[in-house]
Write a structure and sequence with these properties.
The protein is α/β, with parallel strands linked by helices. It is built from twelve helices and 14 strands. The chain is globular.
């Protein structure tokens, strides 16, 4: 059900030039039929990675505004919120769930940056924040539902969970919120990240490298394509009555690493695999149920395996190196 009654929305996307943001800002044109017009999309990004291609060749009938700035900069933050109705908060230092890299900086951006955003939204009279969190906040070992106790492991997961707390506190100050706990992103976007396991394996297959699997590969992760993640945000904006002041897990399917490997080998049989023993934490299982979000009408549309095949097909003509063959245990 479409609950949106404002056809002149101004939406701020923090971190709008990142992996998810670069897809989302292109997809807002899909709201035209639902709202009667395309929202004004304001993008706040510090451009620290030089992601200028994120805002190139946007849909020509869109309405865009760009501010180069950081959520840790109070002046830039408040300027970006002038006249804004909805904030989609994507800006974050992103690590793999079990990463302990740069914990101070991760906390500064993900936790305190989010707190600053909530304060500024309350001061500016912003109606709503949609916060992109992570299923990693539950910690490993269970098939998590939204009512489960969160036991985040690692600085990234902890910072996202602390950010959620500040988002929820905004409700007491008139800022409604939706928290979307996403699974691991995969698939191609204008600005694609290759650090996560699915995209990394697809990249290795594309350039004819052996797929590196840590442990036995039976560890499970919840996955979602970047296109479906963008669609989940649009769904949340359109269905405000059903999604305001609520938390949802958002994933397509739970797959083992071996599931991903086997599918890649089905499409590209010559792909080699090597198993390595490394950090025991890479073997933890993370699983999440998205039944709550599905129950209000959202369903994934884009198959995980198609998204990985799309990445593999970006790379053509790569031969395997003899040194790579000799260095790996081929199984």
């Amino acid at each position: 059900m479409n609950n949106v009654d404002n056809s002149n929305l101004t939406i701020l996307v923090t971190g709008g030039c990142g992996y998810l943001g670069s897809q989302l800002i292109r997809d807002f044109y899909e709201l035209k039929n639902e709202l009667g017009s395309i929202p004004t999309i304001r993008i706040l990004d510090n451009m620290e990675s030089g992601k200028h291609n994120a805002i190139m060749n946007l849909p020509p009938d869109g309405k865009y505004q760009f501010i180069e700035g950081d959520i840790l900069d109070p002046a830039a933050l408040r300027r970006s919120l002038d006249g804004v109705d909805v904030v989609v908060h994507l800006a974050a230092k992103v690590n793999t769930p079990l990463s302990f890299n740069n914990p101070g900086w991760v906390q500064q951006v993900n936790q305190w940056g989010t707190a600053a955003l909530v304060d500024a939204c309350a001061e500016k009279g912003v109606q709503r924040i949609i916060y992109t969190s992570d299923t990693a906040v539950y910690g490993p070992g269970i098939t998590a539902t939204e009512g489960d106790v969160c036991k985040p492991l690692g600085s990234y997961a902890q910072s996202k969970f602390e950010g959620e707390k500040y988002i929820q506190l905004g409700t007491n100050r008139g800022v409604n919120s939706t928290i979307l706990r996403f699974g691991t992103f995969c698939g191609r976007s204008t600005v694609t990240r290759f650090e996560s396991v699915a995209n990394k394996l697809a990249f290795y297959a594309g350039v004819n490298r052996a797929l590196t699997v840590y442990g036995d590969g039976k560890q499970t992760r919840p996955f979602i394509t970047i296109k479906d993640a963008s669609d989940a945000i649009l769904f949340s904006i359109l269905n405000s009555e059903d999604t305001s002041n609520a938390i949802f897990n958002v994933a397509s399917e739970n797959f083992t690493v071996l599931d991903i490997v086997e599918r890649i080998q089905t499409n590209k049989p010559e792909t080699r695999v090597r198993y390595v023993e490394q950090d025991i934490r890479t073997r933890y299982n993370y699983e999440a149920s998205s039944n709550k979000f599905h129950s209000i009408g959202w369903k994934p549309k884009y198959p995980i395996y198609d998204a990985l095949e799309d990445i593999i097909n970006l790379f053509q003509g790569f031969d395997k190196l003899e040194s790579d063959v000799n260095a790996n245990e081929i199984l």
